[in-house]
Amino acid sequence: MSDIKKVVLAYSGGLDTSIILRWLQETYRCDVVTFTADIGQGEELDPARRKAELMGAAGIYVEDLREEFVRDYVFPMFRANAVYEGVYLLGTSIARPLIAKRQIEIAAETGADAVSHGATGKGNDQVRFELGYYALNPDIRVIAPWREWDMKSRTDLIAYAEAHQIPIPKDKRGEPPYSTDANLLHISYEGKALEDPWVEPDADMYTRSVAPEDAPDVPQYVEIEFERGDAVAVDGERMSPAALLAHLNFLAGEHGVGRIDLVENRFVGMKSRGIYETPGGTILLHAHRGIESVTLDREAMHLKDELMPRYAKLVYNGFWFAPERLMLQAAIDESQKRVNGTVRVKLFKGLAQVVGRKSPDSLYSLDHVTFEEDSVYDQRDAQGFIKLNALRLRLAKKLEEKG
Description:
Layout: E1 6-10, H1 15-28, E2 31-38, H2 46-54, E3 59-64, H3 66-79, H4 96-110, E4 114-116, H5 125-136, E5 141-143, H6 154-163, E6 179-182, E7 187-190, E8 220-227, E9 230-234, E10 237-238, H7 241-254, E11 259-265, E12 271-277, H8 279-295, H9 298-317, H10 323-335, E13 341-348, E14 351-358, H11 366-369, H12 381-402
Parallel strand pairs: 1-2, 1-4, 2-3, 4-5
Antiparallel strand pairs: 6-7, 7-12, 8-9, 8-13, 9-10, 11-12, 13-14
Helix pairs in contact: 3-7, 4-5, 7-8, 9-10
């Protein structure tokens, strides 16, 4: 790696990635281009730009990727109803391929021969970033400082920062209670005070939702319109993907919707405990399943449900650009051609409940399903249907009786 001349670093402007910036400059004697993505984390990004300038970055990219993030990553994933291990809506996982893609593009634009990230050697993100890098540029060189340097603790990082005149925020000198990662879809809390899965998190930890018990005592109804499986309007107002998700985050957060406390299985083999807030995404998941319930054929819906855990696992493990994910996406998108209509969702005390659905492409037939008299369904047909489906069971039982 000694011949590396330029590196593109995924840069947040925080203490860790600022230390990485300086470490790359000193260890590899190379230029470092920083890339800071606005994917809706809710932080002012100008300080990251100023800090990169102060530290002598050879190039600085600060880009608003919120619309691309929701349109090209979040929405395709939600067409699949992807949920990892029953509850996790993959908020961190789905952000990594977009960041990796843009890093590779910037590396090409700037003539960089390597990329770098701040993920540790224990987590999933190192895998997600690097699978994305290699899928898009098989020959790119990757520098993962946490797997190379000899710093092992927060104390080591602060000592390095002090020795290299890197500004240290006051709250970083003490032991942080947990780490967070945020984007427009969710915010996660992990580590430190949350590592014991028996201990309930502090009530004041949450930032995107009120506690369900403190939510309004009156429910709120929200109507979400879908076209080809994607949400396009809320309460009759059409919005861009990012604006729509931000609006649903606000509505759901007011009613305490979208909190989960999960012990999950990391790709690298260990279990970890994480707390997630995904307010708008929780509404979207329920609403999307609601519109599918009246527009999707039964077997198409059941097949989607069988494919979903595989799709979710691919996203969680970092295989967004893998051929099998693209193949599954093509099948899922084919199923969404008539997933059009409106869903009404009731928000109340931490719950998002579908209470209405309508569609111009609905397969729901009141004439067929009614308990009243009808002229379209002959109930006597059911006898032959049942007997044919029972035939193998009857033959097996007869054989058993003979034996």
